[in-house]
Amino acid sequence: MKDTEVRKLTQKERARQKRVVNLIASENYTSRDVREALASEFTNKYAEGYPGARYYGGNEVVDELERLTQARALKLFKLSPDEWHVNVQPLSGSPANLAVYYALMAPFGKIMGLELSHGGHLTHGHKVSATGRLWTPVPYTLDPKSELLNYSAIKKIARKEKPDILVAGYTAYPRIIDWKKMRGAANAGGALLMADISHIAGLIAGSVYPSPFPYVSVVTTTMHKTLRGPRAALIFTRKDGTDFYKRIDKAIFPGLQGGPHMNTIAGVAVALREANTPNFKKYSRQVVKNARTLANELKKHDLRLVSGGTDTHLILVDTWRGGEGIGGKEASERLEREGIVVNKNTIPFDARSPQDPSGIRIGTAAETTRGKKEEDMVALAQRIAHILS
Ligand SMILES: *Cc1c(COP(=O)(O)O)cnc(C)c1O
Question: What is the pTM of this model?
Answer without folding.
Answer: 0.98
